Amino acid sequence: MKVEALPARAGVHQLHNYEEIAENFDWTEVEKEFSWYESGKVNMAHEAIDRHADSDRKNKVALYYKDQNRNESYTFYQMKRMTNRAANLLKENSTLEKGDRIFIFMPRSPELYFLMFGALKMGLIVGPLFEAFMEGAIYDRLDDSDAKSIITTPELLSRVPYDRLPKLETVFLVGEDVAEHEGHIDVLKHLPTSSDKFEIEWLDKEDGLVLHYTSGSTGKPKGVLHAQYAMVQQYQTGKWVLDFTETDIYWCTADPGWVTGTAYGVFSPWLNGVTTVILGGRFSPDGWYKAIEDFGVTIWYSAPTAFRMLMGAGDALVKEYDLSTLRHVLSVGEPLNPEVVRWGAQVFDKRIHDTWWMTETGAQTICNYPSMAIKPGSMGKPVPGLKVAIVDDQGNELPPNQMGNLAIEKGWPAMMRQIWNNPAKYESYFLKDKWYVSGDSAYMDEEGYFWFQGRVDDVIMTSGERVGPFEVESKLLEHPAIAEAGVIGKPDPVRGEIIKAFVALVDGYEPSEELIEDIRQFVKKGLAAHAAPREIEFKDKLPKTRSGKIMRRVLKAWELDLPTGDLSTMED
Ligand code: 6R9
């Protein structure tokens, strides 16, 4: 697919000379922006909060928080005091020390962020968990990482199997009715009386920061460990990609259980001293548009599933809100369907800028920069200072337009530093001791733009034709009756594989043989005959991760009657 480049957006000051910067970029230039460049004393919480609290940004709002019951704001100075209180509370009520693992398992709230940064001030490694996790998922993560502590709520406590976790010493409980006893600490009781002065634990730039568990296509979830040094890339991409300026109001919709919710929910904006909005509670189209209007959001970072759900809620709803403050909209997590891009341009008058990265990369990697011409459907170009290439299975670089493994040259600032407890697994990601192999397949065009094709293990081979499930799903979504679509290859004795689509219908449509035929013809005409699904099955809902990715491996397991594997990241 060859699409004309769109013109660059006017008036943006960063990365106008992408080619030149990308050619010679040296990350030590960015290191100089941090106080540790001189002092050697590193701590994310200092750079993200205290540094601003001790500067002209002291009374600038760091956090706007809103949910059904609360609507609060905290300046950088207030964040410094609250995170100091949290750090003291954690320290005084446990044996926690630098490098110990503490998990956070609770719904979004200001306290979640006080405690997360309080833990970072103590030099702990923080493991964020989705609140939807059930007991098995909690057990696997805490057990694998020998966690010493967890922060949760009385409502979620029953899912923490502390009797089976001998290393788990302290449970911090955030809620109203807390039965405090040995090892169970009532956070809201102690927080107001804890000292608001705290001596930060100084770290080395290679010391641990966050531990995000993520599930692969097989096996148990693995713990991806990031170092403090990730802040260098998280900070700089905030400028280049998110286009942060001093007056922006930024909203990243991701939960901190997903890497996007830590790296770009709080780290990147706060490293840049930018005001951040956190919305609690569940997704609702009205609630989301209202948040943009109420807070005057200027930069909005979300995900394709969310955009698709907003699209499904209809254009009339958009018109009920004043979204005129929005100046930059971005997406991550899944391929951004051209249909969604067209819709965004139409209703927000903004092109949605796609960004590609993954838990393991720790920060944005391939992006559409605001100042660069974009090709809809392309993930964009590599972040300057990173070398990204398409390689074959032996690690040889492939020429433009050839599909292969999307790989990144080892050693970028935010690269994961370990798979917890599993060095062999960590090593297995690298080819020729040079390339980190992402597991995604893609190609690069002559102009250096990267095009996503699929997860390597999801690509379908049907009658000798290679079909990316994403392409078919995108086409299916354009059909008026289809709300969600997931496509897999189903083994077939004749064709190798056939394409099977699982679809959820828009309200008001009913499954029928005619509809199946209509959908098939729609894909045939719109895409290609060989890409039309031979089988179409209707579902009320498709299996998705908490971060919105359609779980094709679950569809495949259903289809083939195989065990579904680890489902801990699945939406409830
Ligand atoms: C940040 C995050 C990583 C996987 C990645 C890829 C998919 C992410 C994408 C995209 C197409 C994009 N992915 N961004 N696919 N276009 N712009 O999502 O991390 O949860 O680890 O997922 O998500 O398949 O390999 P993570």
UniProtKB/TrEMBL annotation:
AMP-dependent synthetase/ligase domain sequence ranges: 55-417
Domain AMP-binding enzyme C-terminal residue range list: 471-549
Top-level division of the source organism's lineage: Bacteria
Transmembrane segments: none
UniProt keyword terms in alphabetical order: Acetylation, ATP-binding, Ligase, Nucleotide-binding
Enzyme Commission number(s): 6.2.1.1
InterPro entries assigned: AMP-bd_C (IPR025110), AMP-bd_C_sf (IPR045851), AMP-binding_CS (IPR020845), AMP-dep_synth/lig_dom (IPR000873), ANL_N_sf (IPR042099)
Signal peptide: none
SUPFAM superfamilies, A to Z: Acetyl-CoA synthetase-like
GO molecular function: acetate-CoA ligase activity
Pfam families assigned to the protein according to its UniProt record, in alphabetical order: AMP-binding, AMP-binding_C
PANTHER family: ACETYL-COENZYME A SYNTHETASE, ACETYL-COENZYME A SYNTHETASE 1
Name under which the protein is recorded: acetate--CoA ligase
